[in-house]
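Example (one chain per record):
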Amino acid sequence: MKTLYFKDLDQHFGKVVVLDGFVDNVRDLQYVQFVVLRDTTGRVQVTIEKNEENASLNEIVSNLTLESTVKVKGTLQQNEKVKLNQMEVIPSEIIVTSLSLDELPINYKDSSSASIDTRLNYRFLDLRSQKNLLMFKVQTCLVHAMREFVMNQGFLEIHTPKLIGAASESGAEVFELKYFDRLAYLAQSPQFYKQMAIASGFDKVFEVAPVFRAENSNSYRHATEFTSFDVEFSYIDSFEDVMDFEENLLIAGISKVKEEYGEEIKEIFGVDIIVPKKPFPRIKLEELYQELEKTANFSMNVEDVGDMNSESEKLASEYIKKKYGHEFVFITDYSAKKRAFYHMRKDGIPQGYDLIWKGCEITTGAQREHRYEVLKQQALEKGLGEDIKFYLEFFKYGCPPHGGFAIGVDRITMLLLETGSIKETMFIFRGPNRIEP
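Predicted structure:
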């Protein structure tokens, strides 16, 4: 005898089944009791008549509290009168495996009944909602499909260190920590180590892992710790190869989500999943500035010239959607001052891009500079020296032309399901003001 997932019960009519689940609802009427059980795949009704034979079962159900967990053994029957899937279980045994002791501090079935921060305080309850359960099924499906795609392309999965001796990007937005008798940092990205793998002769690598950003930002899309899907590969001719690969990767991931969960997403989130078509529109930054000035009377503020900000990303998406009917846009030709030192440059222009989706940047990608002397000079221009000496060593003894990108798993889930905040799409959110639970 083994426990069954509720989604598979329709294969077992007339048989004795064993079910494990949460108590989702209890109705204790004059002559009959109904218990609705819930697992990760659905719900099922347990029906217990009130009589002498069922006295012990009746007593158990009379003392059941919502969200307790139980194990039920009984016969599965078809019953067209039962609204819940026209089936019910007639139990011979009910065992309470854990008892919910107190009234729930939040109503997880109604997300509007408490603020997001209150719900995060009780995330272990908040995650029990049908909406959150579906969200993480979708996220699992998306990551699995993208992982499957890169593995089918011959990529190796690597696991890079998260404790590092130097900041993995330029800038000061790193978390410091004591590492025995010296300082160490939490990795902002696996960038240096992805490129080390390329220099090692691993021509295609990927990683799905946490990264850490000490950004004191309280926006809808930032977190201090999040999961990144990183890709790096060799022997490219230009950053166009990187954009082409990312198009294929996203199409594979979103297609699988639509196939597996499109209808549920429409029902629960009210979102139509649109699988993008190739090629994604491309536009140079300066051309975009000109178009946004004409169509939206927008001028970039002085400090962000040569780059994008949240307002321009939103307007860019609106412009591209109206002109091309596409949800994605690659923006290229950024200022070298606004890009990392390891981006290859051609005539002074970084050979990279940002990918914008639904008004939000989801990727910065590029062809990397793989030539030692050029890379060393670009690092010096950014004021980087001894801190990245170990990194520059990777390029002294030959390194293939290569490029790559990273996609924030939590952010892309937020945009896919249009939740409005990354706090909703992370299993446990970490931000400037939240380090618990």
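Caption: The chain has two domains: 6-98, 123-425.
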